[in-house]
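Show me any protein, keeping tokens residue-aligned.
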Amino acid sequence: MTTENAAPPVTAAPTAVGKYRWIVVALLFFAMVINYVDRQMIGFLKPDYLQPEFGWSERDYADIVFWFQASYAVAYLLFGRIIDKIGAKWGFAAAFTIWTVAHIAHSGARSLTHFFLVRMALGIGEGGAFPGGIKAVADWFPKKERAFATGIFNAGTNIGAIVTPLVVPFIVVDLAMGWRASFVIIGIATLLWLPAWLLLYKNPREHKKISKEELAWIESDPPDTVTKVGWLKVLRQRETWAYAIGKFLIDPIWWFFLFWLPDFLGKSYGLDIKTFGPPIIAIYLLSDVGSIGGGYISSFFLKRGMSLHAARKTAMLICALCALPVVFAAEASNMWVAVLIIGLATAAHQGFSANLYTLPSDVFPRSAVGTVVGIGGMLGGIGGMVFAKYVGEVLERIGTYTPIFIVAGSVYLIALLVVHLLCPRYEPAKVE
């Protein structure tokens, strides 16, 4: 770093100036809104439109989810490495383009095989979203703020899940344009995000909009001593597997809520595409509280002098305990009781996830973050594939959601135990 470019040292985040990094978070937030509208639409349309029209069994629908997650898992791994090589700007742009084109292509699906293909293409594109987002946060935020920043952009997933029951019925039912038109209209409208990202996003040191004070805050962590990390070094680290196994355990639960929640509400309480809205909106509003709150809790603990290790794991423990009541969700006789229980669990998931997502950037050099996130995302996708098959078999054979909710409530404590055993001190990974 030259004397001319060096920024003055700081010990606290700038307040009067230097807010550009939050514009980056806003861009990531809106990208995740779009990502989850595109991802959730099939689950929302399934009970009233897709399943009746195409005659899908529960196993057929589980297979559609399975193949989406198979391509998502592979793409997550590959995009993690690609984004480490080419950076968040172009890696995220490529992922966004692929998933948006695939989303629009759903409008032409005419058979189960077609749905397998378009969902696999969607999974390829969406596999780059979180590696790109986590890489961008690692580039633009010091460790003190990463969990909070991640929680904010991750909250876009919940807003996407809220937007879906508002927009899709309006297009499909109120405008009477049909489910195919909904994929085209939403896909074309969301393409507006891409030029905004390309115009506004750059690496901090290349950006003319940030002040020296903000740059100093962004770079206030000790500099990385490692500039290049190979696959084998990453795979040999216990910290890699702490993150990846954690993702394997918790990601399938979020997929389950995303793809099967409308079906659960329809079968349990007689809701349809016009009445799904209020309970789903309530659940994902609670999820937003959990996403931002979970990230805020660990940042709050850090500001109060708690170690990084204790702050992250205490936040995850609180979230894991909040997920436990969902084991009783299928037995709730009142819909709003079930909604509150599920909403608490989805909030807990998002809070837990916001802290788990920071593990790679907390303990690995920036050059390895995308790779580690990609490995974790691949295992999360594999876990989702396994769980999709499990859900399909349970619903086809038993016809009740109870065993599924029991698993959903218990895995977070197991995931935290795995993280603690494999990463007991939360120290920097030894990848030199």
Observations:
- The first helix runs from residue 20 to 54.
- The radius of gyration is 21 Å.
- The mean pLDDT is 90.
